[in-house]
Amino acid sequence: MNSLDWAVLIGYFGVMIAIGVWSHKRVDDVSDFFTAGGKMPWWLSGISHHMSGYSAVMFTGYAGIAYQYGITSYVTWSFPIAIGIAIGAQLFAGRLNRLRSRLGVASPLEYLKNRYNLPTQQALAWSGVLLKIVDVGAKWAAIATLLSVFTGISLNQGILITGVITGIYCTVGGLWADALTELGQFVIQLLAGVAMLVTVMGELGGFGSLWTVWEKLPDSHTQPTVGPYTLTFLLAYLFIKTFEYSGGMWNQAQRFMATRNARQAKRSARLSAALWFVWPAVLFFPMWVAPLLVETKKPDASDAYALLTERLLPHGLLGLVIVGFFSHTMAMCSSDANAISAVFTRDIAPALSAKARAWSHRAGLLAARLSTVAFLGLSMAIATQVNSPTFKDIITIVIKWVAGLVGPISIPFLLGMLRFFRKSGPTAALGSWAAGLFAFWLTNYGLNGVQLQIQIVSPVATSLVLFVLLGFVRPEDTPERDAVLARINSDDDGPAGAAGAAASAASAASVAIPGQGGGAPRDGARDGTGAETKDGA
Fold first, then answer.
1. What's the distance, Cα to Cα, between the start and end of the chain in Å?
2. Would you state the pLDDT for residue 473?
3. Given a cut of 70, is residue 219 above it in pLDDT?
């Protein structure tokens, strides 16, 4: 990098901070901070959902897979994500929006107190927070790895720089700042990605290289599944990513909650799915053909894309591509920080402290910002240990830990919104969660020689089977829980639909059966309309 590249990078950081400061004016309370007050346009939500879904890990870990194995990096990664989001657009996006518009919640997990009970909500909240600290730590390590290639600064210095910049804008501006910076980051990545694609094609003989270059690469480069990335792995990944990217990762759920209504949430999901079909292929092509242009120095080839940009791009344009690396990571990490802050402020803190349940708007907003800073600090600390024996490397964390652990957390959260699973109550939720975590430990650490696809799919499959089975063996549906489902599942987003859902909920509540979830509410819950009541149902 020279002074021109540094100017581009510093200018980018300055713009991100400026957006955060501008967004600060639009944040008056926790609803604005966590869900943009339900005023985000569907197209902005869709772009934000897409951008917050992947990070610089694509340019390190997945660049290595593309370099070694070819198109399987797309077939077994972004393609199943696109399919999963398209499925989620029909099943979950609209219902997630109604959590805000019908139940008045600001955190994705807030509804779980009434859908199940307080212990279930707390189990999912705490385990999800701990998982995201590790996940985001891997993202910081990925971008710091790239930064070290270009600048020579240490891993820890790179983590500190990116973490502090991200912390400033997402703490000040909340979800509005996240979404607007992600829009800017999308434009930057669009320019950088196209520039890289055109440069690589020019190096290989022009536009026709899109078809002719494959003859010069190993035959395995054109196989959709190869090496450890088998058809079974693909199906397992599709299964997991359908839950993860449809709201199982809470930052993704927030994007759907932030739109004006359920219809716009579905449009947002469809736009994100379309982007996942198209855009990663543009980014991956230079990585697929990289063996013809550079020789990697790392055994996992995670430095392939960085070496490619250093060789081919002129200064200034190199800085733009580096900004593109930052844009993805900062988008994901800031959105995760906002989601975790929402869960801590709205779900965890009120369960721990009576004072938190009585926070004013101003105090709640301050707590949201402080918890955002705390989460970023913890994840940055984890990032410094990403290559330790426990975590091994970046791609291990992303594929095994996140894919393996997100299922037990997301199954009760997402399927709990569907009427079909109305009989699955707290026992099914907690049982499936615990069994899924045990399956993760068993296949990753308790047994030797377990295949990768088994390691990542066994936790979510175990959780799914037990969630359904326990719902039938020990049904725990109550009028109160049915009332919550009635509000989430009404298809009409207009006044008539809202009134009908409210009437259905009121009717169900009026026949509450004492001793079976009925009776007076208790401390710390909400009544399904967003009004504070006295404890979960």
1. 58
2. 95
3. yes
Q: How many CA atoms lie within 13 A of 189 on its CB side?
A: 28
226, 243, 203, 235: which is closest to 436 by C-alpha? 243
119 SS3 class:
helix
Helices (H) then strands (E): counts for the chain: 25, 0
Distances in Å between the Cα of 385 and the Cα atoms of 137, 156, 198, 329, 438 are: 9, 10, 37, 18, 24
* Sequence letter at residue 68: Q
Q: How far apart are CA 73 and CA 94, in angstroms?
A: 30
**In the block, residue with structure tokens 């009989």:** 423
- pLDDT of 327 reads 67
Q: What is the mean pLDDT of the chain?
A: 80
Q: 421: which 2 tokens?
A: 């699973």
Query: How far is the C-alpha of 458 from the C-alpha of 390, rounded, in Å?
Result: 20
Helix ranges restricted to H, 152-261:
155-203, 209-212, 231-243, 250-257
Distance CA 412, CA 433 (A): 8
Q: Residues 255, 52: contact at Cβ < 8 Å?
A: yes
d(CA 410, CA 83): 18
H or E, element range at 139 = helix 118-151
**526 forms bridges with which residues in the sheet?**
532
Please determine, for residue 41, whether its predicted confidence score (pLDDT) is greater than 90.
yes
Which two three-digit tokens encode residue 507? Answer: 């009717």
pTM: 0.79
3-state helix, strand, coil split of the chain in percent (to 5) is 75, 0, 25
